[in-house]
Design a protein that fits this description.
- The chain contains 10 helices and 5 strands.
- It is mostly helical and 252 residues long.
- The chain has 2 domains: 71 residues, Multidrug-efflux Transporter Regulator, Chain: A, Domain 2 (Orthogonal Bundle); 119 residues, Orthogonal Bundle (Multidrug-efflux Transporter Regulator, Chain: A, Domain 2), CATH 1.10.1660.
- The strands form 2 sheets. A 3-stranded antiparallel β-sheet has the order 3-5-4. It has a two-stranded antiparallel sheet with strand order 1-2.
- A hairpin with a 5-residue loop joins strand 1 and strand 2.
- The two termini are 31 Å apart.
- 31% of the residues are buried.
- InterPro entries: DNA-bd_dom_put_sf, MerR-type_HTH_dom, MerR_fam.
- This is MerR family transcriptional regulator.
- It comes from Agromyces soli.
Length: 252
């Protein structure tokens, strides 16, 4: 029979406070605890595995995304759970490719603006949004913030993005995805026509690539804990999470 752990014992073993353990249980990150007749929670090694997997994953993708991923992993069959983990790696890879595309366009700006985008074709707002992995409303917001200046074509004045604007959009997307604020991004965009501005944007994008490499390494380190978690699910079967309640305080 699996050894039972009280809340304080589980918290110490996982490196969390008692309240964080209770919060993560309410959020569905770990399975619901068994309750004794007097109402005390009772946990098992499976809860410790889940908490360790969450901690490792939170370092790689952040607490909010890790909570969502763990809650989903616990309720999916093994094949689906493995696919969730694969998608985490794929997501970082897609971010990296978007940054590299922005760097390629930036390098072209310094030489020939007309060749700044390999396709040398304009894009509609729908096409550009899909290429960047954002919503059309995001592009309209960037335009309102003077980050983008699309052309207007046709009787309905539809937005059209020429190659130089596509490059700018890629740079904006990469910087925003990395957490840069609108004023910081605007400062970069406003100086793209100057050598110093191109150098500044290039340095910022290089920083994004380094950050993504660090995230990839952390996610690889988290893989062992995630494998232990999903292999345990294959033995025990997926569990049904308790209903999440309003979260009070940061869990990370």
């Amino acid at each position: 029979m699996a050894r039972e752990l009280r809340t304080a014992e589980l918290a110490r073993a996982a490196g969390y406070s008692d309240q964080q353990v209770r919060d993560l249980e309410r959020l569905g990150v770990i399975p619901p605890a068994a309750r004794s007749a007097n109402g005390y929670r009772s946990y098992t090694g499976a809860h410790l595995v889940a908490l360790r997997a969450y901690r490792a994953l939170a370092l790689a993708i952040g607490p909010v995304a890790a909570r969502a991923a763990l809650a989903e992993l616990r309720t999916r069959p093994l094949a689906d759970a493995a696919a969730v983990v694969d998608e985490l790696h794929a997501g970082i890879s897609r971010e990296r490719e978007r940054v590299r595309a922005a760097l390629a366009g930036l390098a072209a700006i310094a030489t020939d603006a007309s060749a700044a985008e390999p396709s040398a074709e304009t894009m509609s707002i729908t096409e550009l949004a899909a290429a960047l992995g954002v919503r059309s409303s995001t592009l309209r917001f960037w335009e309102a913030e003077s980050l983008l200046s699309p052309d207007r074509v046709g009787s309905v004045a539809a937005r059209s993005y020429p190659p130089p604007q596509i490059v700018v959009a890629r740079i904006v997307a990469a910087l925003r995805e990395g957490g840069a604020g609108i004023p910081e991004v605007r400062a970069v965009v406003d100086t793209l026509g100057e050598p110093a501005g191109v150098a500044s944007a290039s340095a910022a994008l290089d920083g994004r690539l380094r950050a993504l490499a660090a995230r990839s390494a952390k996610l690889l380190r988290a893989s062992a804990a995630l494998v232990e978690l999903i292999e345990g699910l294959d033995t025990a079967g997926p569990s049904v999470p308790s209903a999440p309640s309003a979260h009070r305080g940061r869990v990370g």
